[in-house]
Amino acid sequence: MAMSIQVNHTTESENEFDYSQRGQWLRAAVLGANDGLVSVASLLMGVGSVKKDVNPMILAGFAGLVAGACSMAIGEFVSVYAQRDVEMAQMKREKEKRLETCENDRKVEEEKERLPNPGQAALASALAFSVGAVLPLLAAAFITDHKVRMAVVVAVASVALAVFGVVGALLGGTPVVKSGGRVLVGGWIAMGITFGLTKLIGLHGMKI
Fold first, then answer.
1. How many CA atoms lie within 13 A of 119 on its CB side?
2. Who's near 83: CB < 8 A, 6+ residues apart?
3. Is residue 172 part of a domain?
4. How far apart are CA 24 and CA 123, in angstroms?
5. Residue 168 pLDDT exceeds 60
6. Which of 53, 63, 78, 123 is the most buried (most CB within 10 A)?
7. Structural domain that includes position 67
8. Where are the transmembrane segments (predicted)?
9. What is the pLDDT of residue 94?
10. How crowded is the C-beta side of 202, counted as CA atoms within 13 Å?
11. What whole-number distance in Å separates Cα of residue 125 and Cα of residue 39?
């Protein structure tokens, strides 16, 4: 009977997934994809508000993709490395307060393995940003009609934002509708503001 209880308890413990273990790469990947999608889609909407030719839109979008991916990677690397340094310093202070035992040494090694990896976070951010950014670029590249192109960019960006929001919610164990809706509305706001302000500047005589 005791053996059965112990086995059941072990099985339940194994089935309980710690979603915080996904936090490092999930945060970088989801934020990177959302940023890439929103940034490049907003750039396309802004340029498209004053230019009907597809070439300026694609050029601006591609420049935004490259610059954004590099920025995300560098920013994530610096941020995570700073976090890692803080946690390492804290572990060192805690170790100095404890007696030097084998158990404590093993605990320190386990804690080091759980520290965030700056390189992994930077790579995840850059790749995710690129994946998100390329979607509106592809949507705009093969459509000649200006109005249709703009509508397709918005549609593709909206669908992708909703998908990213839902996937992030499912992987993170958070409410799907709330998370997906927040991401989608945020993207609409960013695209709308960029379109409106760029259009306003264009109407007041600034030529691009």
1. 0
2. 116
3. yes
4. 12
5. yes
6. 123
7. 32-203
8. 59-82, 121-143, 150-171, 183-202
9. 72
10. 14
11. 14
